[in-house]
Amino acid sequence: ILSALVLCDTFTQDFRPLTIQRPKCLLPLLNVPLLEYTLEWLSAGGVQKAVLFCCAHAHQIHAYIARHPKWGSHFVPAEGAAAAAAAGDAAASETTAAIKKSSKTRPGAMEIHVLVSHACKSVGDTLRVVYERGKIRTDFVLCFGDTFSNFPLRSLVAAHRTRVKKEGSVMTIVGRRVSPGTRRARYGEAE
Predict the structure, then answer these.
(1) How far is CA 12 from CA 64, 103, 121, 175, 179, in A?
(2) Residue 128: HSE in the Cβ half-sphere, 13 Å Cα cutoff
(3) What is the four-CA torsion angle of 159, 164, 170, 176, rounded to 10 degrees?
(4) C-alpha–C-alpha distance, residues 77 and 119, integer Å
(5) What's the rounded Cα separation, in Å, for the pair 178 and 184?
(6) Considering only CA atoms, which of 63, 58, 64 is closest in space to residue 35?
(7) Average pLDDT for runs of 10 along the chain of length 191
């Protein structure tokens, strides 16, 4: 089974004030949330299980996925969703109810899990939490929830698996050359 870890937080403040009330992955591009493009790309690339990792605005991501006509029927509620609902969180309560009512399933559809941790401050923290909670134990694709790509994911995964068998590689990183003069500021740095 091919899994994906989708980071719904970028751990930066680049898009403030837009991201004060809404996560970056739910910002629209052509009236479609960026997360939708990410999930479609992963699904088309053969990913069978996606773990959406959220820190801030997790309830909005829950609600979006649970109510979605395509993804909602294969949505597994986040750890702690029932506890949040019991504490009176209306969004979590609605999401949990929507999941319980959902009986539609499509064979071969990507299963979506939401994992929430408010303590993470970096990608490294996130990877530790995912490992500790045992959510992904196979090869996985790591990307952000605002990934907008048409990169052929299936061929990359096949190349990675070949490299693992031949060379014992543990990771494949995809990068792209940029032309001279392209903005090279690091994430989180003010220009």
Answers:
(1) 22, 38, 9, 20, 25
(2) 8
(3) -20
(4) 19
(5) 9
(6) 64
(7) 84 65 84 90 89 83 80 62 42 42 52 83 84 84 85 86 85 77 54 46
Whole-model pTM: value is: 0.73
Amino acid present at 50: A
Quick one: pLDDT at residue 39?
92
Backbone φ, ψ for residue 101 (5° rounding): -75, -25
**What is the three-class DSSP state of 30?**
coil
Cα 139 off chain centre by = 15
1-29 as b/e: b if 16+ CB within 10 A: ebbbbbbbbbbeeeeeeebeebbbbbeee
